[in-house]
Amino acid sequence: MAVAACNNERQIIAKTEVYPAGLDCVAEEPHFLRVRGVELHLSAFPFMVGDKQLGVISLLHDPQYVADRIMSARRFLLLVFGAVTLLAAVFTIIVARLVWREWSEEMRLALIGQTPRRDFQPLLREVRLLIQRIGTEHQEDVQEGNWTPARLRHTLTRHLHGERIVILANREPYLHERAGRGGISVVHPASGLVTALEPVMRACSGTWVAHGSGSADRETVDSRDRVRVPPGNESYCIRRVWLTKDEEAGYYYRTA
C-alpha cells in the first residue's frame, strides 16, 4: 500500500504519496495498527550495504486486499468446479443415451431373429427361455381352470419349493368345548380369517399356531400342545398357545 525510507535516526527521507502522515519508521517486530478506521499491517526491514546499516525500509500493507484476493480466487475456483461438473454431467447423459440406444437396437434385432453380436447371445438365450417358461406356465394355468386342492399344492410346490405352510393367528379354526355330562364338542368358529385360510391348510397341510381359547383345549392336545384336525379327516395340526394377561403391565405372556 505504501513504503517509506528512513535513516538510522528514524527520520523519513522519502515516502510514497499514500503513506500516512505522522507515521514514523519503526524497527519493532511487524504488527497491526489502525489508521483512520482501517486496520493496516506495518513491517520494517534494515537497509544494509555490506555490514553497515544505512537506514530502514518501512512497508505498509492493507490486509483487506489479501482477503479480497482470497475471495476472488475462491469464487473463481467454485465457478471452474461448477462448470467442470456440469460438463461431466452432460457428457455422462449423452454417453448413456447413446449406449442405451445402441443396446435397444441390438435387442430389437435379436428379438426379430437377426443375428446379434456375440455379447448379446447369452442374454438372448435367457430371454427366449424366460418367454418359453412363461408361455408354458400360462398354458398350464389355462388348462387347469378353477382352483382345486391338487392345483393349489402344485402351485405352492412350484413357487415355494415345497416349504411347509405355517399360519400364526389369534383365532384357531377348531375349538374344543366342554359339553354336558363330561363330553367334549368340536366347534368351528365363524370367522372370516378361518373361512379364507382353513381350506388352504386342508389342501396343503401345515401348522396353525393360535391361542387356545376353548374350555377343553388343554385336554385334547398331545405333549407338544398339538391336535390334528379336522375331526375324521385330519390333514393338518393346530399348535395351541395359552396366554395370560398381566393387567398391571398391560401385555400378554405365555403360560405353561
What does this structure look like?
This protein has 256 residues and is α+β, with helices and mostly antiparallel strands. Among the domains are: 2-61, no CATH class; 152-254, no CATH class. Helix content is 38%, strand content 27%. The protein has four helices and 13 strands. It has helices at 63-111, 121-144, 149-160, 192-204; strands at residues 2-6, 12-15, 31-35, 38-49, 52-61, 166-168, 175-178, 184-187, 207-211, 226-229, 236-241, 243-246, 251-254. A five-stranded antiparallel β-sheet has the order 2-1-5-4-3. A four-stranded mixed β-sheet has the order 6-9-11-10. It has a two-stranded antiparallel ribbon with strand order 7-8. A hairpin with a 4-residue loop joins strand 12 and strand 13. Helix 3 crosses helix 4. The longest helix has 49 residues, at 63-111. The protein is elongated, with a radius of gyration of 46 Å. 9% of the residues are buried. The mean pLDDT is 81.
